[in-house]
Amino acid sequence: MQVSFFINGESKSVEVADENTPLLWVVRDILDLKGTKFGCGKAACGACTLHVDGEAIRSCSYAVKFAKGKQITTIEGLGNEENPHPVQQAWIEEVVPQCGYCQPGFMMATAALLDKIPNPTDEDIDKNIINVCRCATYYRMRKAIHRAAELKTEANPITEIENS
Amino acid sequence: MGKKKISRRKFLVRGGLGTIGILAVGTYLFRSPIRRGIAGAIDGGESLYMGDTSSPIIWFEVTEENTIVLHSPKVEMGQGTFTGLAQMAADELEVSMEQMKVVHANSASGNMDGFATGGSTSVSSLWVPLRELAATMREMIKKEAASKMGISTSEASIVDGIVSGGGKTMRYADAVKDVAEWEVPDTPLLKDSKTYKFIGKPIPRIDLKDKVFGAPIFGMDATMPNMLYGAVVRPTHIGAKFIDADISKAENMPGVIKVVKEKDFVGVVANSQTEAENAKNAIDVEWKVERSWQTADIEAMIEVGKGEPFVIQKEGKSEGILEKADTTIVSEYKSPIGAHAQLEPNGALAFVEADKATIVMSTQVVKLTRDEIADRIGFDADQVNIVPTFLGGGFGRRLHTPNAIQAAVLSKAVGKPVKCFFSRKEEFQNDTFRPPTHHVLKGKLNSEGMIEAMEHNVSSGDVAFGSPMLPGILEPIIGADLGAWRGGMIQYGGIPNYRTISWRKKLPFATSWWRSLGLLANTFAIESFVDELAVAAKKNPVEFRLAQIQEDDKGFRLKEVIKAAAEKSGYTDEVVNGRAMGFAASTDANTPCAQVVEVSIEENEIKVHKVTCVMDPGLAVNPDQVRAQCEGAIIMGMSAAMFEKMDVEDGQLTPTIYGPYEMALMKHAPKEIDVILLQNSDVPGAVGEPPLGPIGAAIANAVFRLTGKRLREMPLKLS
User: Fold this and answer.
1) Among residues 490-529 of chain B, which lie with CB inside 8 Å of chain A?
2) Cβ neighbours of B330 (radius 10 Å)
């Protein structure tokens, strides 16, 4: 069957044998966007986090049929070297990644958090950033999340109004 | 132009580490032997010939853009090794960091580590050879450039990969063009440390952008044209032997290309990941399981006094003193089975063709994996090319990766590339676990309140023993499992009588290398016990430790980290504002590390607020990345010490998913981690594992000061 959606700003239509196929595999294997990772397949680790209509979702446990007509953003669409998202910029400034495998999921979760809570407290971060990082880069991640909030506010001081 | 002779050089002699091979320009622009060699190996033709066919090793490549590509035989699994190696090479090559690229050397290139990436040795083991290789290459290029420019070598100078002299300049890329063979000079003197431009500097990781923008750099991300998806049925029970499988249903599932039944496993190849998984679930496998193991069975096996003892350390006569005295203090400590839980599951993309195989994967053991695959599919080792990728976590989990064999077998069966990896449940059930341990410690104080005698008995499942990296024939020669007792020796050489005894126990499931090996559990036991003795002696635990360290270089470095940690943290035995401090120190692979934690109890849970970590890894090639290793290892060590535990229920290892396998998350991470690096050695030492040592004991020692309760079992729980 065909499923159509927008991904990273582009309209895409994909053919899948089973509409219950996790969105993760459509993104990775059909659209060849490998930045979104497989970690557990049970929505328990967050490595597969991407955005669907601005919400952070765990795509390993999200059937592609639910993405019909929606806006998907992956790490590749969040920003790029020329125009990094504030979260990516902060991750670079704080030199966060070690092995790096879980980092796209954390950055996507953080980007969604900052859209809702532009200046998160440590408690907001603890409550909302619940992905798993085995290298345990949490200490730098927390610094990077606060830095990303600063960068985002500097870049776009009226974000909150636009979003409301 | 006559061919130049290749001379033998210093680094060819050193432990077979290898040669510089040749230099080459441009993958596409210049058809140099090096590239032909690699391309030939991948395409299945000629093998690389360059001087020594037994070890045709390639390290560097010069590109048309005048960058240097270092083909690293060590894999990057997160420790920043590629960045450190690039800094070391750039300093001797006289190029900028921007001109350095590092890639994984594939096995067919010949630049292969015969052993592994692990043991916190990548930077330290390459410290001399890599710089010598780089310095030699610089001299070769300089000589070539001087010759092409018509100047003498002594007139030539180099800045950023550009050779200048006699009013002329020439880029490395132009100097190395059209040179068929090279004369390799004697190894030049290495730079004086005062002239380092990059070594010792906090250079940002060179893989940072790939990792921040989601580049497809991991084994899981590998693709090939016409790639299919594999899935293998893996055992769910300890000791399960594959007997047979009913594949009739799976064969008719949608998208299935082939179901492959072998003597030891069954797998499926399908058009997509989902179809492969669905078909796999339709296979009915008959397993033979001889016994239904329980946690209690395993705990009963791991008891000091059972198994084979081996004295690994002995000074004086502790046994006589400890047995006789009625003031001997005896304590037992325990640690549980630990899972690796690395985020990227094990897996491989294999393409087995008629006469060659290409395997793209995350592995710490390139050579072993290559040889195992070749053996299974009936190829010569040089017909199998392992193409290592960035690892989505290593931690020792990939020090044996026989899963690649299954991917290769599936690929061979269908004649197409097949990617096959573990589910998370399979990862948890088929891990090569950190073994559980049991420790019995005994100590006696003298009349001055110092330790007169001390003993550490550690019983552990295998770590190094049983690993394919250590041939079984060596076990009786080595005596005790060097992985299991890592960190288990008593580091206070000022104690007059002490002894460490290692008890070996082979468990019915795989136990093996887990980041820092025995260090985590052994340091937890020893440093908690030393704290008990300090309390019994009514002494400050920092001064108590310092007074019993021997006067030698190792002792000096340990004392320095202990003193600095106490000072920087403002260590006190007093509870202040509901927070207590805990102190512990360890020496691992000649890297001493001391940590002080500040904890409180909140809602009956231990909360770690601050960690001060002082470590002396010797020369820190990249201090920022050494700090990053400390920060990560501290939280990973907290995770293991406070939360993680595998159980055995009715023959199955459990839990099998994150969450139920409790781990430290963002909310548990200390808000403050203060890392201070001492560098009391001018060579780089181990970094990735040593900072995992003290944390468990430091937390337990703090909890004791706060509550009066001594926690002697990991994971540390208040009730």
Assistant:
1) none
2) 12
Residue B625 in tokens: 């990345």
Read off the tokens for A146.
Answer: 């606060």
3-class state of residue B597 by DSSP: strand
Closest by Cβ to B624, choosing from A22, A79, A95: A95
Please write the tens of the pLDDT for every residue from B92-128. Answer: 999 999 999 999 999 998 888 878 888 888 898 888 8
Q: How far is CA B282 from the centre of its chain?
A: 37
Note whether B670 contacts A139, CB cutoff 8 Å: yes
Q: Judge: A95–B204 Cβ closer than 8 Å, yes or no.
A: yes
State pTM to two decimals.
0.93
Q: Do the Cβ atoms of B670 and A136 come within 8 Å? A: no
d(CA B331, CA B351): 55
Q: For position A116, which CATH number holds?
A: 1.10.150.120
Q: What is the DSSP string of B518-541?
A: THHHHHHHHHHHHHHHHHHTT--H
- Among A27, A40, A62, A124, pick the best mutation site for testing chain B contact (most B Cβ within 10 A): A40
- B2 pLDDT more than 70: no
- Alpha carbon separation from B610 to B583, B596, B635, B707 (Å, rounded): 12, 8, 11, 18
Nearest of B464, B512, B515, B434 to residue B688 by alpha carbon: B515
pLDDT, position B597: 98
A102 and A152: one domain? Answer: yes
CB contact under 8 A, B216 and A126: no
- Give how many domains chain A has, as a whole number: 2
As a CATH number, domain B295-338+432-707 is: 3.30.365.10
ipTM at complex level? 0.96
Q: How far is CA B255 from the centre of its chain?
A: 38
* Residue A131, CA atoms < 13 Å, CB-side half-sphere: 32
* DSSP symbol at A27: I
Give yes or no for a contact between B399 and B467, defined as CB atoms under 8 angstroms apart.
yes
Compute the count of residue pairs across chains A and B with CB atoms less than 8 Å apart: 185
Indicate whether A83 and A151 sit together in one domain: yes
Is residue A14 exposed (0-12), middle (13-18) or buried (19+ Cβ within 10 Å)? middle
Of residues B700, B308, B401, the one with CA closest to residue B535: B700
- State the best of B666, B671, B673 to mutate against chain A, taking most chain A CBs within 10 Å: B666
B605 contact A CB<8A: no
CB-based burial, B527-546: b 16+ in 10 Å, e otherwise: bbbbbbbbbebebbbbebbb
* Whether pLDDT at B580 is above 70: yes
Q: Are residues A59 and A122 in the same domain?
A: no
The letter for the amino acid at B231 is A
Closest alpha carbon to B146 in B137, B138, B154: B154
**CATH match of B10-210 with 3.30.365.10:** yes
Q: Is B371's Cβ below 8 Å from some Cβ in A?
A: no
Cα angle B611-B616-B622, degrees, rounded to a multiple of 5: 90
Say if B274 is an interface residue toward chain A (CB within 8 Å): yes
Residues 176-205 of B with CB under 8 A from A: 204-205
Q: B567-577 b/e with 16+ CB inside 10 Å = b?
A: ebbebeeeeee
Specify the DSSP class assigned to residue A98.
S
Common-topology check for domains B219-289+346-421 and B295-338+432-707: yes
What pLDDT sits at residue B115? 81
Cβ distance B214 to A35 less than 8 Å, yes or no, reads yes
Q: What pairing do the DSSP bridges indicate for beta strands B497-505 and B347-352? A: unpaired
Residue B134 or B115, more confident: B134
Strands (E) in B248-293, as ranges, are 256-261, 266-270, 284-288
Secondary structure (DSSP) of B641-686: HHT--BEEETTEEE--SBTTB----GGGS-SEEEEEE---SSSB--
The residue segments making up the domain with residue A60 are 2-77
